[in-house]
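Whether sequence alone determines local backbone shape is best considered at the level of individual chains. For completeness, the protein is quoted in full, as a sequence line and a line of structure tokens:
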Amino acid sequence: MTNEELKQFKAAISITAVAQNLGRTVERGRFRCFFPQRHAHGDQTPSVSISEERGTFRCWVCDDV
């Protein structure tokens, strides 16, 4: 996939909708991590942030999520 194709793909679909389709409950642009066992308290407070502008998400605890 080229960079241009990736940009078009990200523009065509909401990253929030993707997270919800994966079973995540999204509240105010945040949801709980896919790997709560990596978190000291099981990710009781959602640690994954969504960027709709970029079409990305990031867990602030896990290095690879």
Notes: The chain has two helices and three strands. Strands lie at 30-31, 48-51, 56-59.
